[in-house]
């Protein structure tokens, strides 16, 4: 299985290299023809014909980019498939394939109000699998938005125990984590950039293949190996960003609160959950954007450890192994400078910090975790950009290869 996966990854990478080589070969043919005094025109013709013919890899790449349906730009519905490679500490090298459809139910043609639905599959050499169906539907020229997400995943993870002290001191072990979730959110724009809405979500998580050391970590904290819970929530947003996909200026504020009744889960108590986000973007000079992100994720004391927020991953405090530093409550802050270099290429640098803690009464500033890093950017289209980041932190550093900005 792992060998077959690596072969697929090599094929995908070779597709891009081969396409570039074919284009370069055609350019070299023309260059030789124009710089040589004596020209064999028959040879030039043969070389140009050979260079104009697309090889297998280039045809495959063009097929993945070409819409399957609705090939014209003003079509009511377009769909296309795509495949790529991603990487993170948690999943290792990962193959990503998706089928995505676009449709516009609004009178305008803004990409920010274009509805979409996507079915995505992920598989990695580490044994990570995920299937996901998600989308956004905009109605009334963006005044109404329905967001939905259904996913199931399996991930072998490293495990140091629960809480900051355990993550900093305990020997590492491993277990396999299973997650299933369903969530739906309805948003209604009230005025300008202000919107309110309601949410429902259902989550199930379980830890299996737990060895004796991992079982001791879990039982010492009085926790169980599985949990299920459903919640109803309310959300308010204020959004003045100039674009959701290429933000260069604006403000985004979000406050989400939910209750998860005891009768809708097996946690033995009614849970509460609050998430707050504050993002600010402003240009500093030509081609640059300064982005600031403040984030808080707070759960009540009876919450299962399988639902606790964690530092790290692909978005906040990149470079930390997601799941190592986790607790019932988490706050993070990061500042990022993004700079376009030339054409579709750019880079970024960032710095930040975060803290996990069991209660607001037990916040310890000495346990604040620092973070910094740098990354490379390459635009792939109006809604996508390749992101390669490398982050550094306390006892941790790592590479992230993904799409679009972290926030």
Write up what this structure looks like:
With 407 residues, the protein is α+β, with helices and mostly antiparallel strands. The protein is globular and about 80 Å long. Helix 1 (2-35) runs antiparallel to helix 2 (41-52) and helix 1 (2-35) packs across helix 3 (56-65). The protein has helices at 2-35, 41-52, 56-65, 164-169, 212-220, and strands at residues 77-88, 92-103, 115-124, 129-139, 144-159, 173-191, 194-208, 226-239, 250-260, 271-282, 288-299, 329-342, 345-357, 369-381, 384-393, 396-403.
Secondary structure layout plus pairing:
Layout: H1 2-35, H2 41-52, H3 56-65, E1 77-88, E2 92-103, E3 115-124, E4 129-139, E5 144-159, H4 164-169, E6 173-191, E7 194-208, H5 212-220, E8 226-239, E9 250-260, E10 271-282, E11 288-299, E12 329-342, E13 345-357, E14 369-381, E15 384-393, E16 396-403
Antiparallel strand pairs: 1-2, 2-3, 3-4, 4-5, 5-6, 6-7, 7-8, 8-9, 9-10, 10-11, 11-12, 12-13, 13-14, 14-15, 15-16
Helix pairs in contact: 1-2, 1-3
Q: In brief, what are we looking at here?
A:
The chain has 407 residues and is of the alpha+beta class.
